[in-house]
Design brief:
about 350 residues, alpha/beta, Rossmann fold, 2 domains, six-stranded mixed sheet, four-stranded parallel sheet, 14 helices, 10 strands, binds guanosine-5'-diphosphate, binds magnesium ion
Length: about 350
């Protein structure tokens, strides 16, 4: 599928290049062939169309010439923006949240993840669908690839019904999961949950600490969706949890839809915040800030935690500056490790033990 990437860049935005590069990577992960990149710089977005009229027409022209299937927009779109852009460009439109959900969809193999993803998609679709019903001309259909398949045959009332059905199902599964955690805790187990940006190396650490291959490691983003639990040989009664990663600028409603994963983070006895310190400084800062903002929003910094500076087998430029940057968010100890070579893992295990002893 051919696609154009587009972004409305605000004048004050200095990290737009990082955002766009990461977005391109995510789009390519879904399988889109990017044929053109269009950027418009403005002091503020146009509220009804995001881009200016002229820019939209330019995108429409490129789409026509290059036979593009879909327009991938970095900015989060409001329902009216999506509607207007689709009407002008006559192509399906996806924003970064749609792209991430599409990646989730590709990687989801378990029922819980699938339900959570469907919930997130429907929740995003509902306001768009309401708007569409209001504005549509008879006989027309929305460009629904981005909005999801339901819009073709479902009214928003159907969607609402489906949402409450899924929510009930998730609630049941959620209770079961919480029961499981509670039971294990009563048996004396401690939960240690890996958190952090996608690709930081959470699944690799999970495998290295537990000497297993249970977690799938991949250079592609968001391979891990469903959580995995494993015990660590040297640490008695500890269950290590690998779960979904964070991304910059994710719609809070998407985060909320992953209630079961969030429960696991919230109910953990301690967290290991995994940070890839091998990234170039700008990218490191961009990703570390994004992860820290999620952790702070979810009040997870209030939990006992250790920062795991991963990938030290690689060249690490600006390490002191990076450590300082992490220190702006937390006073937690920072342990340098390599999930790949095993360096630093003994110290990490000692530290985990120390923390868990302190908290009992
Ligand atoms: N060189 C190096 N690469 C690593 C290390 N840990 C993870 N990786 C790589 O980083 C990528 C993402 O790893 P993964 O564990 O799937 O990250 P996750 O998304 O946080 O679970 C994979 O290509 C891993 O091989 C490490 O310590 N050193
Ligand atoms: Mg993973």
């Amino acid at each position: 599928m051919k696609a154009i990437i587009a972004m409305l860049r605000l004048l004050r935005e200095t990290d737009w290049r990082l955002k766009l590069n990461e977005f391109r990577l995510l789009c390519e992960t879904v399988g889109y062939e990017i044929v053109e990149e269009v950027i418009q710089t403005k002091p503020a977005p146009f509220s009804a169309t995001l881009f200016g009229r002229g820019k939209l027409e330019e995108i429409a022209k490129i789409a026509e010439e290059k036979q593009v299937d879909v327009i991938l927009i970095w900015n989060s779109l409001s329902p009216i923006q999506r509607f207007n852009i689709e009407q002008t460009i006559k192509r399906s439109v996806m924003d970064r949240n749609d792209v991430i959900l599409e990646i989730f969809n590709k990687h989801a193999t378990d029922a819980v993840s699938k339900l959570q993803i469907e919930l997130a998609q429907l929740r995003r679709q509902l306001p768009y669908l309401k708007l569409w019903v209001k504005l549509r001309k008879t006989g027309e259909r929305p460009y629904t690839r981005a909005g999801g398949e339901y819009a073709w045959k479902w009214t928003w009332r159907d969607v609402r019904r489906r949402i409450s059905l899924i929510r009930e199902k998730i609630e049941t599964l959620r209770k079961q999961k919480l029961q499981y955690i509670k039971r294990r805790k009563e048996e004396g187990f401690k939960f240690v949950c890996l958190v952090g940006y996608f690709n930081a190396g959470k699944s690799s650490l999970f495998n290295a600490l537990a000497r297993t291959q249970k977690a799938q490691v991949d250079s592609k983003p968001f391979t891990t969706l469903a959580s995995k639990f494993v015990s660590i040989p040297e640490l008695k009664n500890v269950l290590l949890v690998d779960t979904i990663g964070f991304a910059a600028g994710l719609d809070p409603r998407i985060i909320k839809s992953f209630a079961i994963n969030l429960d696991e983070m919230r109910n953990a006895d301690m967290l290991l915040w995994v940070v890839d310190v091998s990234d170039e400084y700008d990218i490191f800062a961009f990703r570390t800030r994004a992860a820290a903002e999620v952790l702070s929003e979810l009040k997870l910094f209030e939990k006992p935690h250790i920062v795991v500076a991963n990938k030290i087998d690689k060249d690490i430029p600006d390490i002191e500056k990076k450590i300082e940057f992490i220190g702006m968010w937390t006073n937690a100890p920072i342990i340098k490790v390599s999930a790949k070579t095993g360096k630093g893992l003994d110290e990490l295990k000692r530290k985990i033990n120390e923390f868990l002893l302190k908290s009992t």
